[in-house]
Amino acid sequence: MSSGQGKKRLTNNSGEVGFLAKVTRRVSDTPIVAYTKQKASDAAYVSHKLLKSTGKAAWIAGTTFLILVVPLIIEMDREQQFNELEMQQQSLLGAPPLAPAQK
């Protein structure tokens, strides 16, 4: 197996390599193309790692929010409803309404 057998050759009907194939091969073998391919590969790798770590951070932030913040919001809402109910009962009984507690 020779070194040229692995590559696809563009030939015309007479078996000669065409102009476009020559130009394409010449351009694709330049160091600039190899450098660009390497940098594109590096950028894809970094992007993949960044997306993966961002996903992990979003998961941690989301679960922390659900475990710590949501119960706090529910409890604060429950407390507010209780205070409103207490104020309604006081107004029905004729007692003067209390000023809201300042903390």
From TrEMBL:
The entry's localization annotation reads:
Mitochondrion outer membrane
Keyword list (alphabetical) reads:
Membrane, Mitochondrion, Mitochondrion outer membrane, Protein transport, Receptor, Translocation, Transmembrane, Transmembrane helix, Transport
**Swiss-Prot/TrEMBL GO biological process terms:** intracellular protein transport
GO CC terms of this entry = mitochondrial outer membrane
Membrane topology of this protein:
Single-pass membrane protein
Q: Which InterPro entries match?
A: Tom22 (IPR005683), Tom22_pln (IPR017411)
Task: Kindly name one Pfam family recorded for this protein.
Answer: Tom22
Q: Where are the transmembrane segments?
A: 57-74
UniProt lists the family membership as follows: Belongs to the Tom22 family.
Q: What is this protein called?
A: Uncharacterized protein
Q: Which organism is it from?
A: Citrus unshiu (Satsuma mandarin)
